[in-house]
Amino acid sequence: MPLMILLLFGGPGSGKGTQAQYLAKEFGFTHISTGELLRKEVAANTALGQKIATIIKSGGLVPDEIVSQIVQENLPQLLKKGSVILDGYPRTVGQVRALDALCKGLPDVKIHVIYFQADAQTLKDRLLRRVACEACGTGGALDAKGSFVCSFCGSKKFVRRQDDNEQAILMRLEQYESDTAPVLDVYLKRRNVVKIDAAPDEKVVQRNVKEVVERFKSET
Ligand SMILES: [Zn+2]
Questions:
Q1: pTM of this prediction?
Q2: What is the 205 CA–ligand 1 centroid distance (Å)?
Q3: If you measure from the C-alpha of residue 130 to the centroid of ligand 1, how many angstroms do you get, rounded to a whole number?
Q4: Is the bond into 76 cis (omega within 30 degrees of 0)?
Q5: Residue 36 belongs to domain with CATH number
Q6: Residue 171 lies in a domain
Q7: 167 pLDDT more than 90
Q8: DSSP 3-state assignment of 12?
Q9: Is residue 141 part of a domain?
Q10: CA triplet 34, 110, 5: central angle to 5 degrees?
Q11: Is residue 154 part of a domain?
Q12: How far is the CA of 198 from the centre of ligand 1 (A)?
C-alpha cells in the first residue's frame, strides 16, 4: 500500500491548521510540523539540538539545511506508521529539492499538495474577527455585531492578539504570499496541487478536503 506525504499550504486565517488536525484524525495520518521536530531535537539536547537552540535564542532563523536535515532524520521513521501531513515544510525551493531527494530513497511514497486559497479580503476579515476569551483563553470569533460569547465558559470579555490589527494582518498576508509563491510554483508546474476554496464555512471546507484526500488515496 503506497504511502502519502500531504503538504498543506494556506495563508494566515485560511484554516489550514484546523483542517490539518481534522485530516489527521479522520484518516489516521501523522501530523508533523517542522517547528515541533526542531523543538524535539532541542529537548533531546543532541549536538544539532544545541546548535538550533543557540540560533533560536539569538532570534535567528534556523537555516534551510538544518530544517531539511531534521526532516530527513525523522520522516522515514514516521512513514513507517503510515501517511503523514507535513506542516510548514517545504518553505523554500531548496527544501523542495531536499524533500525530492529524500523521497527518491523512499519507494511507494507519493507527495500530494493542497492549497487552501482565499482572497486577502476574506482572510483579513476572518483574522480581524479572531479573539480569545479573556477569562479562560478559549479561541473564538466576534459575530457580525462585534460581540463575543465564550463557547467554553460563557464569558463575554475577549482579548485580541496584538498583531491582529489591519495593517499587521495585511503585512502578514503579503509576506506569506511572497514566501510561498516560489515553492507553490514548483508543485504547480508538476500539476501536483489541488486548490480548495478556503472562504466557506469550516464544515464545508472540511467536506471538500475529505473528498480530495479520498481521491488521493484511490489514486495512490
Ligand atoms: Zn472562556
A1: 0.85
A2: 26
A3: 14
A4: no
A5: 3.40.50.300
A6: no
A7: no
A8: coil
A9: no
A10: 25
A11: no
A12: 27
